[in-house]
Design a protein that fits this description.
Elements: H1 2-37, E1 54-56, E2 62-64, E3 73-79, H2 85-101, E4 105-112, H3 118-124, E5 129-134, H4 138-142, E6 150-154, E7 160-164, H5 167-176
Parallel strand pairs: 3-4, 4-5
Antiparallel strand pairs: 1-2, 3-6, 6-7
Length: 177
């Protein structure tokens, strides 16, 4: 019986090692793919325009690709199942407040997966326009979102100016445009 228990423990440890190595390989492949395509692993590369999209904010207002032209827009992409998204939501809300003072529109997009979006919506507060989409919805596809949380600054011409894992870095790009 002790040999069986020891074998199960060893097998369990091997499975954990295999899972962690697989995750590391997947992360590395995403980085390599991004280098080969010129797009960052999180979304569209700077200089590219998103595809057409139409979504509804939680307040019921339409948000379309045409809305991105005319003024800069800081967009945060979150997932309801992402463990790193909820801690970043108040950070984005704070940066969004500063962005609005600079005349930059702000939008938060929540990809609703298994869990509901309520915690993220509450953490984002009243500042940014909040859009919820089932899974990778029209905005997620238009911006080719591959990682959460991900932030982008879209210029007044409708093309991506900056993207990354820190909304403050994206907002800094607004001053350079």
């Amino acid at each position: 019986m002790a040999v069986l228990i020891a074998a199960v423990i060893v097998l369990f440890a091997l499975v954990l090692v295999d899972l962690s190595l697989s995750a590391a390989i997947i992360r590395k492949l995403r980085v390599l793919e991004a280098r080969s395509t010129g797009s960052p692993p999180g979304g569209l590369a700077p200089g590219k325009a998103p595809g057409e999209f139409t979504a509804l904010s939680v307040q019921g207002a339409p948000v379309t690709s045409g809305d991105l032209r005319g003024e800069q827009t800081l967009i945060g992409f979150f997932s309801s199942d992402c463990s790193g998204c909820l801690p970043k939501a108040p950070v984005f809300a704070e940066v969004a407040s500063e962005a609005r003072r600079q005349g930059v529109r702000t939008v938060a997009v929540i990809a609703v997966m298994e869990r509901g979006p309520e915690e993220l919506v509450a953490a984002l507060g009243e500042g940014p326009t909040v859009v919820t989409e089932q899974g990778r919805g029209s905005m997620g596809r238009a911006f080719e979102i591959g990682a959460f949380p991900w932030f982008m600054l879209v210029g007044s011409d409708g093309t991506v100016v900056a993207g990354g894992g820190d909304p403050a870095d994206c907002l800094k790009a607004a001053a350079r445009v």
